[in-house]
Amino acid sequence: MDMNTKKLKKNAFRVTKERGLTASRVRVPGGHLTAKYLGVIQQIAEEYGNGTVHITSRQGFEIPGIPFEKIEEVNSALQSVIEGLEINQEEPGAGYPAAGTRNIIACIGNRVCPYGCYDTSAFAQRIEKSVFPNDLHFKIALTGCPNDCAKVRMHDFGIMGMTEPQFDPERCVSCGACVKACQKKSVEALKTVNFRPQRDSKKCIGCGECVLACPNAAWTRSEQKYFRLTLLGRTGKKNPRMGQDFIKWIDADSIVKIIMNTYDYVNQYIDPEAPGGKEHIGYIVDRTGFPEFKKWALKDVELPEIAEVYSPIYWQGVKY
């Protein structure tokens, strides 16, 4: 049967190597879902696909082997998953309304991991509600701490959890465990002065190793959640490069606003002749210059007083 491939891809189905067959892409913002939805995905794979499921590198699912003529039935079958994960939808039962912004990925965060500085899945789901549906090609990733298990520096927006360690001298027993932990596992932001740990706030990366190491809870995590925001990392053929620091000690509201401002910036400057109607944000920034991007990104953003904005920013990467 004839198939409009643009419509197919916008509906979150893939063009595959097998004629007449497609694969359904299932969004899982933050990589977290209730286990019962795995049964729905299994049922779709067995009834409409080839009985297999692929776990994607972006923490979603692909169900391959679906005949074109079964797309509408698959969309209907996916409705409970879409509703359960609270994915924004224009027409219930019609599947996904866009496939541009890629599934937002996240490490497991502080729901499980002791190193996590915040609930990564919850923040990913919040961002999802703001950015989806959209046809622009954005990649967003979240990680709970500077260990960066989610490899956020390979994304357009990398969100890295931080905490501003709070010290209670009354609870300190001068054991030096926090200083040793910072020296061995982090960036040596602590030193001992008069038998007490002293923190270099400029050097501190907010990892929380001191909190984990202290046997007497003299160090605690800050109530306020902070983040390190990195920009414009990318893989691909042409010019792969690592994302660079943009703002340190930024808050969640400012991150969401910057992401939404970037959609406005891309809509203004994207090359309409780009292959497939897609142009990586980094190439647009390279073309317009970083100061122009920064002007758009920080429009109406109210950063916390502690925030540090990096400027200028230089990207390194493979050049062809």
Rg is 22 Å
CATH superfamily of the largest domain: Sulfite Reductase Hemoprotein, domain 1
> Which class of the largest domain in CATH terms?
Alpha Beta
Low-confidence stretches: none
Helix content: 25-40%
The strand order across the widest sheet is: 5-6-7-12-13-14
Class per helix and strand makeup: alpha+beta
Query: What number of structural domains do the residues give?
Result: 3
Label the CATH architecture of the largest domain. Answer: 2-Layer Sandwich
- Count of discrete alpha- or pi-helical segments spanning 4 or more residues: 10
The major sheet is characterized as: 6 strands, mixed
- The coarse silhouette is globular
| Mean pLDDT across residues | 93
Terminal CA distance: 41 Å
- Strand residue content: 15-25%
Summarize this structure as a short list of keywords or feature phrases.
320 residues; alpha+beta; Alpha-Beta Plaits; Sulfite Reductase Hemoprotein, domain 1; six-stranded mixed β-sheet; four-stranded antiparallel β-sheet
What does this structure look like?
The mean pLDDT is 93. Helix content is 28%, strand content 18%. Helix 5 packs parallel to helix 8 (252-269). It has three domains: 5-84, Alpha-Beta Plaits; 105-162 and 225-309, Sulfite Reductase Hemoprotein, domain 1; 166-220, 2-Layer Sandwich (Alpha-Beta Plaits), CATH 3.30.70.20. The protein contains ten helices and 14 strands.
Describe the SSE topology.
Layout: H1 5-10, E1 13-15, E2 21-26, H2 36-47, E3 54-55, E4 61-67, H3 71-77, H4 79-84, E5 105-106, H5 120-131, E6 140-143, E7 157-162, E8 166-167, H6 177-185, E9 190-193, E10 196-199, H7 209-213, E11 219-220, E12 226-231, E13 244-250, H8 252-269, H9 281-288, H10 290-297, E14 308-309
Parallel strand pairs: 5-6, 6-7
Antiparallel strand pairs: 1-2, 2-4, 3-4, 7-12, 8-11, 9-10, 12-13, 13-14
Helix pairs in contact: 5-8
